[in-house]
Amino acid sequence: MNHKNKMETRPMFPLIVSMAVPPLISMFMQYTYNFVDCMFVSWIGEKELTAVSLAFPITTLMIAMSIWIGVGVNVLIADNLGQKNQDRANSVVTNGILLSAVMGIIVTGAVLVITKPFFSSFTDDPEIYHLAVRYMRICAFLEVSSMVHICIQKILQGTGNMIGPMWFQIAGVVLNFILDPILIFGYFNFPKMGIEGAAVSTVCGYTLSMILAFIVLIFRKQKVRLKIRGFHIDFQMIKEIFVIGFPSFIMNALGAFMIYFTNIFLVVYSTTGVAFFGAYFKLQQVVIMTLNGLVQGCIPIMSYNYGAKNMPRLRQAFKYGTGIGIGLTGISIILFWTFPEQILRIFNASDEMMTFGVPALKIMCTSYVFAAAATMAASFMQSTRRVGFSLIINILRQLILLLPFMWILSYFIGMKGIWWSFLAAETITVFISICLYRRYPVEFSNDPV
């Protein structure tokens, strides 16, 4: 490398903006897959919307697996580039792509096995059950393309290249958006596939993104490349990828478990409650994954400067990133409070759904600003190799605190207690994150994880 990397020289605010906007757009696009599916499917009927909502924990878990490998690769590449270790950074690229392909095949098989028992545990309605199974059996085949293209996306982002990943992500989402109405409703002489058309559109979108990702990595000049000559599978490196990326997996996988348990609470009240929460979660994911796009822009900066032992820029990146995240989520809160009815009408909400959905939307969205601070704190811990603290923060906000609050508050105030539990869990997690940040300062180390 004949010149200094922009992550160690450029002023921090414009650096974060330039690094965060493309992945922010990419992550926004990533989670519009399910949002668009949900929107079009809701136009068929509420049972179809319920079926897709029940499938969402599985698809969320599948994406979480992809992000697990991708973030592990991302942090290792940025760290090694910060240490000027080009050969090892190239080795991370090849090991990461092979690992993502193998894991994609394994996860696809696992999803096909669990599909029927998973949905049978949720509903006695045979129509909803068969709709969900039909949808998920097709969506299972998105995992290999998801794993590989997200891995390549994170590889490029780890070098500071944020533009390429944005465009191949956008291409997949656009294809999904075009195919969804065509295949669901049978336009232009295509067969009317209903809910299965939404699944086929999603798989096609991910496949296009994977193809374009390979083209960008191999045929465009990058700061890292596939290591072919002298390459060998490095099991220590694979272990590091798993360990470093694990907090990101937990953060996203816990979302799937959270949906699962929330649906268990809601189904006691009504299937409309399940349909509403499925629609709400699509809205929340647009906000949270936009926030995660910001985080994915900040992680390479923090990881690079941790590897370079540059404490001032490391802390500066964290503080600027937190401020931007709070600002973005604050805007989303204003929108959700101002236009709740209009937002729910996107999903063809019934009068019953509107009755409890509008106040529920206002209560839950208020937690976003606290989620922004906690998510950035977890990412800072992850970038500085304090994986345990990052795990603690993520598990607290989506499991350890949330579920007890959900059980207690729903017992006393009914369905409203479920909505209030999200705000309570996020608020307490922020205070715990502040304590961890202040009590345990960063220590630089070149030792492997």
TrEMBL record:
It is a multi-pass membrane protein. It is found in: Cell membrane. The chain crosses the membrane at residues 12-31, 51-77, 97-115, 135-156, 168-188, 200-220, 241-266, 286-306, 318-339, 359-379, 391-412, 418-437. It holds the Pfam family MatE. Keywords: Antiport, Cell membrane, Ion transport, Membrane, Transmembrane, Transmembrane helix, Transport. The keyword Chaperone does not apply. The keyword Membrane applies. It comes from the Bacteria. InterPro entries: MATE_fam, MATE_MdtK, MdtK-like. Belongs to the multi antimicrobial extrusion (MATE) (TC 2.A.66.1) family. Multidrug efflux pump. This is Probable multidrug resistance protein NorM. It comes from Anaerostipes hominis (ex Liu et al. 2021).
